Amino acid sequence: MLKHKKTKILYLHASAELYGSDLILYQLVTHLDRREYDPVVILPFDGPLVELLRRAEIPVLVRPLPVLRRSLLTAKGLMKFGVVFVYSIIHLARFIKSREIDIVHTNTSATWGGGVAARICQVPHVCSAMELVDNPLFVAKAMASMTSAFSDLVLTVSTAVKNHFVALAPFGKDKYRVLFPPVDTGRFCFRKEYRRKIRNELGLDDDTIVAGMAGRLNHWKGQDVFVRACAKVLEKLENKSKKVHFLILGGSVPGREIYELELRNDISRLGLTNFVTAPGFKENIEEWLSAMDIFVLPSKWPEPSSTGVVAAMATGLPVIGTNIGGTPETVVHGETGLLVPPNNPNALADAIAELILNDSLRKTMAQRAKERATRLYSIQTYVDYVAGCYRELMEKK
Fold first, then answer.
1. Strands, DSSP E only, in the chain?
2. How far, in Å, CA of 14 to CA of 66, rounded?
3. Which of the four, 228, 306, 342, 393, has the lowest number of CB atoms within 10 Å?
4. What backbone phi and psi angles, to 5 degrees, belong to 100?
5. In this predicted structure, what is the pLDDT of residue 72?
6. Residue 4 — pLDDT band, cuts 50, 70, 90?
């Protein structure tokens, strides 16, 4: 009896940390049917994702990859990017041939090289587009053009991302499909023991309403807007019986630690030291989400589609987000949360205060958010869809 030949998938990714796109990759490769697929992952540097993949017995290599970052947008940076780009094409083409790779899957359109190498080796290339870059325009156009030109299929995390890429590179419009990011509902679900544990660490009782956010400490994520809104919320709650505390989870972008310092200075200057806790990056994010009552995403720039929002919804949290990018596709205003204009601490404070003061509304939205996350963002739905795409591409070979 002939042994079934597994489909060999090479995954390329821009990072090795444990934020949104990193977790999407991890969930995909660890939930694939290993009887049918044989995955191998290449990451550009070492980090916690490497160890996590190895623990799951997923082959992972650390090799230079051309990842388009804002820090490279200088003459010297672009030259360095070009050198790594050429090197990676040569290296990846050799790797694809020597390992007899059947499909290359690039997880984020900021990672280049995989599509070109796949084309050279005449194997299909899938790209998961998770970016909404519009400035500078030449970078946005280059990213969209490379994605459209060298992909057989592009999976975008929201309609907003699809429309953005198609507008910049319309020649590839038929390759784009929308696939919402997955959430592990087994991990991200409310647990009383988690809530008790984290609140005990923070010295908070169960009656305190906790509003929090999670994500990289980055100017465009809007942590500074959240801090200013926190001060305004306290003013609105003066003479009210509600107790409140705020959480900011996430670590600094390497080389941009100044933003965290400015953030902490703002917390002190606004007299929020006893009301805001910013403990940095937490790998046990599911425990911290269970300790919250409201999740906030005050992004100043369009979010492609936040995995943090989906995880919060699956945990049973109403979400307050900004009404730009892919967030309005995830958060249904007035049903699963509230949407406010970006970079507007007054509007954000109004929304937070509304959910703090209205227990019934907050709990109703929490239940609807959980139901929506479970229905639309199942990890099995995500993996089954991607596997279906792989089969479709293999049949066309």
1. 7-13, 37-43, 60-62, 103-107, 125-129, 153-156, 176-178, 209-214, 244-249, 276-280, 294-297, 319-322, 337-340
2. 8
3. 393
4. 55, 50
5. 66
6. low
Domains of the chain: 7-182+378-396 (3.40.50.2000), 192-376 (3.40.50.2000)
Do the beta carbons of residue 17 and residue 5 sit within 8 Å? Answer: no
Q: Is the pLDDT of residue 1 over 50?
A: no
**Nearest CA-CA partner of 158 in 349, 306, 322, 373:** 306
- One-letter amino acid at 382 equals Y
d(CA 175, CA 397) in angstroms, rounded, equals 16
pTM: 0.87
- Which phi-psi region, left, alpha or beta, contains residue 100 (left: φ > 0; alpha: ψ -120 to 50)? left
Confidence band (pLDDT; 50, 70, 90) for 221?
A: very high
Q: Which residues of 4-13 are buried (b: 16+ CB within 10 A; e: fewer)?
A: eeebbbbbbb
Lookup: tokens for 309: 């929002």
Q: 335: which DSSP letter?
A: T
Least confident of 38-47, 67-76, 97-106, 383-392: 67-76
In degrees and rounded to multiples of 5, residue 111 shows phi and psi of -95, 115
Yes or no: say if 209 and 285 are a contact pair by the CB < 8 Å rule.
no
Residue whose C-alpha is closest to residue 10's, from 82, 117, 90, 87: 117
DSSP output for 202-264: HT--TTSEEEEEES-B-GGGTHHHHHHHHHHHHHHTTTSS--EEEEEE--BPTT-THHHHHHH
Q: What is the pLDDT of residue 10?
A: 98
Name the one residue in this structure whose structure tokens are 């906790």: 210
**152-168 residue pLDDT tens:** 999 999 999 999 999 99
Main-chain dihedrals φ then ψ at residue 217, nearest 5 degrees: -75, 100
Tokens of 247: 């959480």
User: Is residue 362 scored above 90 in pLDDT?
Assistant: yes
The residues facing 13 across adjacent strands are 107
User: How many degrees, rounded to 5, is the angle at CA 205 between CA 200 and CA 207?
Assistant: 150
